[in-house]
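Researcher: Let's do a round of design. I'm pasting the structure tokens now; please hold your answer until I've finished.
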């Protein structure tokens, strides 16, 4: 009991060496008798290294332990290294001279807390740096070293969310080197370019096509970013909710005039499901996801799952953010580009006031269903990339990229007029300039506010 207490407190038995005994010779003799091997890390003292069979870093020593074929492995290092040797050599007895020789990095990921975090992301792939405890290794899909971490992550499909533990700095380095965000940033640039091209004079003939490509780029961005945020299974449910709710509201309004007003879609947006173009539902989702993320930023909910206090606040704010987008594009898309026609016209350059109230009702319904589902699923709305501000800047930049189109439209605003379905004539220059003002003091404001929120956040 005395020995056990001392070991528990100190980590080893502190005893003086009797006079007349050559300690080094005695150790080497016992090592031979017991068929033991001594492994020593670079950072142990020189006198210990001098009697070791192998000296190296944690990876080299793990490999040496496997090749040694000894009955006993004496590991002169820290706890996780001895555990690794035992995992690789289950038949051998592994001795750690100092049981309290720990590693601060390994100790930073307690099993219970890590398991709770992992359970929030059941679809995620867990990659753990070798400097972790055996309990964390058992919860991992891959174990990597600093030299092969990039190769391990690159071997995982790009659409898979990754939890990297326990070394945050190595994880951020791997994320940067593997360019998992590069495609998303390219989509931001593509969206910005398409938004600008769609309103310049020399692309008038293909403006509709550019708009469709831009919609698909938003959808792809939201699917890629969202798959890391929620996982594909949950994201698929959110996508289904958006498509079903938006199609129902659109179909109802086309048939009855409620809630948007009386309108019909032309053939500009392609094939239809009933009376609604197939492209409309993905268009809703592409901007809805971005609006949802921005609502979290504005409400300082970066690192928290949705709860009873935010279950109504987030849908309301996200709805406002999304309606801002519609206010910035609807007159151009309908009155000018004729992608849909408002049968009775409207006071906002041919668009009725009821459209925006209907939009708010429609998207609020979508977001409220999202909130209820995610709360019941207890899905934390952050991910392994959340420690990187760049991950939050992405949707902010994408939302801002949409705004660039309406601002460019002010610069290239054509002269002349356009007539809506009620025979009301509207000056094109006034239309473009009004949309530019609206987007500047709504969408651009939200973009700036969200950017500064992330920049000044203490959650990173």
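Researcher: That's everything. Go ahead.
Model: Designed sequence:
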């Amino acid at each position: 009991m005395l020995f056990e207490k001392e070991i528990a407190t100190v980590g080893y038995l502190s005893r003086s060496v009797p006079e007349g005994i050559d300690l080094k010779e005695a150790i080497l003799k016992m090592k031979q008798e017991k068929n033991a091997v001594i492994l020593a890390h670079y950072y142990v003292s020189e006198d210990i290294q001098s009697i070791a069979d192998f000296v190296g870093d944690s990876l080299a020593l793990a490999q040496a332990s496997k090749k040694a074929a000894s009955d006993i492995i004496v590991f002169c290092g820290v706890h996780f290294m001895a555990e690794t040797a035992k995992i690789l050599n289950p038949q051998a007895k592994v001795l750690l001279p100092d049981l309290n020789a720990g590693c601060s990095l390994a100790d930073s990921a307690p099993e219970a807390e890590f398991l709770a975090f992992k359970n929030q992301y059941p679809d995620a792939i867990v990659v753990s740096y070798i400097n972790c405890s055996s309990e964390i290794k058992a919860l991992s899909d891959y174990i990597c070293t600093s030299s092969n971490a990039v190769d391990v992550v690159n071997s995982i499909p790009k659409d898979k969310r990754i939890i990297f533990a326990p070394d945050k700095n190595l994880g951020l380095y791997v994320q940067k080197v593997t360019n998992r965000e590069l495609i998303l940033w390219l989509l931001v640039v593509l969206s910005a370019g398409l938004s600008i091209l769609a309103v310049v004079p020399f692309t008038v003939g293909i403006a509709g096509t550019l708009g469709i490509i831009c919609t698909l780029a938003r959808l792809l961005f939201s699917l890629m970013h969202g798959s890391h945020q929620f996982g594909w299974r949950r994201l698929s449910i959110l996508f289904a909710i958006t498509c079903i709710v938006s199609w129902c509201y659109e179909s109802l309004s086309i048939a009855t005039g409620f809630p948007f007003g009386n309108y019909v879609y032309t053939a500009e947006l392609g094939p239809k499901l009933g009376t609604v173009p197939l492209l409309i539902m993905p268009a809703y989702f592409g901007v809805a996801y971005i609006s949802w993320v921005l609502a979290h930023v504005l409400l300082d909910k970066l690192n928290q799952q949705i709860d009873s206090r935010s279950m109504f606040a987030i849908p309301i704010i996200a709805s406002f953010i999304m309606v801002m987008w519609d206010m910035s594009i609807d007159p151009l898309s309908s009155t000018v580009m004729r992608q849909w026609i408002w049968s009775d016209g409207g006071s906002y350059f041919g668009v009725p006031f009821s459209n925006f109230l209907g939009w708010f009702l429609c998207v609020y319904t979508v977001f409220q269903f999202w909130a209820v589902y995610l709360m019941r699923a207890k899905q934390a709305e952050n991910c392994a990339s959340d420690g990187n501000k760049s991950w939050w800047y992405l949707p902010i930049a994408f939302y801002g990229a949409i705004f660039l189109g309406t601002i460019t439209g002010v610069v290239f605003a054509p002269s002349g007029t356009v007539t809506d379905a009620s025979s009301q004539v509207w000056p094109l220059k006034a239309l473009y300039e009004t949309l530019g003002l609206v987007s500047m003091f709504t969408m651009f404001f939200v973009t700036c506010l969200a950017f500064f929120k992330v920049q000044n956040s203490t959650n990173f």
